[in-house]
Amino acid sequence: MVAGNANNHNQPQNRTFSQFVGVRNAKHHPFIDKLIINNLSIVLAFGFYRLGLSANHVTALRGVLSIIYFTMALFLASDDIAFSILAIFLFAYLIYALDCADGQLARATKTESRFGNFFDICIDTIAHSLVYGGIFLYAYRYYLYIGDVYYMNLSIVVGLLFLISQTSRFFILHIYDRIYGDLLDLQNPPAIVDDVIMSAFGLQSQIFGILLFLVSPALAFLFFVLHTVVAAASCLRYLWRGHRAG
Fold first, then answer.
1. How far apart are CA 134 and CA 69, in angstroms?
2. 95 pLDDT above the threshold of 90
């Protein structure tokens, strides 16, 4: 999401909620995000607006919450996986909602800026690493506690591969969208298959995937391995599309 320019935010707070609703469906958001997370984050964005906060303030808040979240993952009870995973899920989902809210706030108040975009990307990178680093770190601590060496090692391996693939994809998507974005959309606009893939392998599904640790560790690790593979494949596909467009 594109964060806004805090300096341009000092203006009468006379915008209505409907004006915020009008910007909820941002470019490239999968269908499931438009139905769920956007409807939550738009309420948060309007609430922040009424409080007089700028999009950059919300972005900074997301960064602070990400640090708190990661610290929490270090100290959550290793012997109570149900409470710990639920706390991690709720915290991660709030951070994701704020990721959408800052961009919606910037667009609704027309305070988008180059610095806001840069600041948002920096916090995105940090928050993404802390959120998923936190879940795999907790998984490692839990399996260490119960003495399961196999899943303990798997937490490290899958966590590293997942973070590397997702971070690489994140940077390539941002860089290539800046260079080729409009051209790529004209040549190959997102189709229903793209929307299904984005819905099944996007940030929202990854956060819900955290809950799979309550169902089956094998299923949870398989889920994140699959996301790692798809992220790598989509990264290569985007590079190829950019190469052809260039």
1. 7
2. yes
